[in-house]
Amino acid sequence: xxxxxxxxxxxxxxMIDELAxxxxxxxxxCAPLLTVTxxxxxxxxxxxxxxxxxxxxxxxxxxxxARALGLAAEKAESKKTICExxxxxQLETMxxxxxxxxxxxxxxxxxxxxxALMGYSGIQxxxxxxxxxxxxxxxxxxRGRYTKSELKKMDDYCAxxxxxxxxxxxxxxxxxxxxxWSTYADYTDFDDILLVDDDRTYALIExxxxxxxxxxxxxxxxxxxxxAHMLGLGKYRDVHGEADRMDIMLRHFxxxxxxxxxxxxxxxxxxxxxxRLLNNDQYESNxxxxxxxxxxxxxxxxLVYWNYYSTDPKIxxxxxxxxxxxxxxxxxxxxxxxxxxxxxHNSYSYVASIPAHECCKxxxxxxxxxxxxxxxxxxxxxxxxxxxxxLWAECAYEDNYSREHMxxxxxxxxxxxxxxxxxxxDRLTDTPENPTPxxxxxxxxxxxxxxxxxxxFGYFDRxxxxxxxxxxxxxxxxxxxxxxxxxxxxxxxxxxxxxAEIDAYxxxxxxxxxxxxxxxxxxxxxxxxxxxLPGLLALxxxxxxxxxxxxxxxxxVNGLELFDVRMGGQKxxxxxAIERLSAYIEGEVESLPxxxxxxxxxxxRPEDSDASLAVxxxxxxxxxxxxxxxxSKSY
Length: 635
Prior knowledge:
Layout: E1 2-3, H1 10-18, E2 26-27, E3 33-38, E4 46-51, E5 54-59, H2 65-74, E6 82-84, E7 90-96, H3 105-118, E8 122-126, H4 148-160, E9 164-168, H5 176-179, E10 188-190, E11 193-194, H6 199-215, E12 220-222, H7 235-240, H8 245-262, E13 266-270, H9 272-278, H10 291-294, E14 302-306, H11 313-326, E15 330-335, H12 346-362, E16 367-372, H13 386-397, H14 403-413, H15 419-425, H16 446-452, H17 468-485, H18 490-518, H19 522-554, H20 560-585, H21 620-624
Parallel strand pairs: 1-2, 3-5, 7-8, 7-16, 8-9, 12-13, 13-14, 14-15, 15-16
Antiparallel strand pairs: 4-5, 4-6, 10-11
Helix pairs in contact: 2-14, 3-4, 4-6, 6-8, 11-12, 12-13, 13-14, 15-17, 16-18, 17-18, 18-19, 19-20
């Protein structure tokens, strides 16, 4: 597209230069003149008009410019006037930089470009401990923490596009990576929860807030405070005795709020702890908030209602109504599902987001945060959930999430990527055992289960079908073809293609081995010992290389060691299986006890159950072995 950029400010010209690979625009004095007017009082958030040899863009905020430019490119032939009105004036994403995947500057900048073209106003950078604090050397130690200079540089890049980089930290719980160090033992109430009413705790929190105030322009801050389920039940109780946990929460909030005020911040926080402490640990529908209870909730903070799971509009309706009774300032956080494994689940994001959006319109929500958590290692690429970010952008600006509209907008905002190709990624989760996204199995990650399950023990054998292997072979081929077509994001598709091929072999692996062993079919066992399992080892080696290359395109090196440890263990178990089968075939051992027990359902369902074979499990430590205590920590 050729445009005359002579009327633009230096900032807009530089912005266009930064977007060149996704939205190529050539400066040509003979082309239509592009003009931009920023006016907060204008009727529409975005208006794009086509005149004789001119394109006129009117926007309410600078962050809308890149989206308007993309719309102009879409309508350049028809020259049809475009008007859009932003339903959520604060349309933000949240990047999880705390679960090992810490985006490096180059990866972050590329992500900002996509967000800018979609029309997002800001990015919340979720950093539990991954930022440097002076005087606290173990805070974020060896975790890829951001320095102040890095944060300032990232903030500057966001500012170029008129976007905010919003500090998103934790000031109560979710600090396990910090509190693991003995130097913080005195700061700990229980597990990952800070010790309330201790001066050292508030010195640390002030250091957190001070660091962010010196690094980022934005004067809004997300102080977290979610999921502190054991608040006041550990060291706090040892020191102070039994205490009303709501009183503890309110007292802590007041102290943190005072720190935020000192540095000029308006605070927001996740709303679940206030709900749970007032409602018998409930954070779901059918909650009654009495006026007396509502009066306890601070009114000088923005409460963020988060729900990434529900597909029932009534739940959103009930909860937003309850929130409105609690506070006049309510925000909503949805989810771009990428935290169940290596593959995204955009199809589930879609079925959960639409009813949420419809209810948020009803309750006039003004701040929308699209989260992208990275539980259990930050395995999935942030770029893999671009369709969900696009979905919320179109809900916000056009209130239009039709497939035709989404396909056109996605291609524009991603430099020609295919929405249909991204749909293929969902096949790693939407399998023959679980073909339709549902809340019952939203935590299901069959591709991760098959990758890490032991090749001899086969804990998930009862949860696959005879069609599973074929499904993954087909998916691998489809993803390889999509990778070749992708103009910019081949690195997102390639590791998933490798993973699908591994899953295709693993789906039948332990089932076939156990069946052959019980039938004393040494020829079939030999096929596995001398051909299939060595081939699987080679595939896993290839996967590690391809995945590592993908990781380095987005993230710092820190955190990749967890993937290496996990895959190293998996490869060793495959080698052990080869050794054990070979020993049996060659008569070195008389039996293989690990193959003699019958496999049970992983989720302990009755033998006569006719429920879906899908099983909610996505944590590596539970998948890789049943020889350790079960837990659900998010690494």
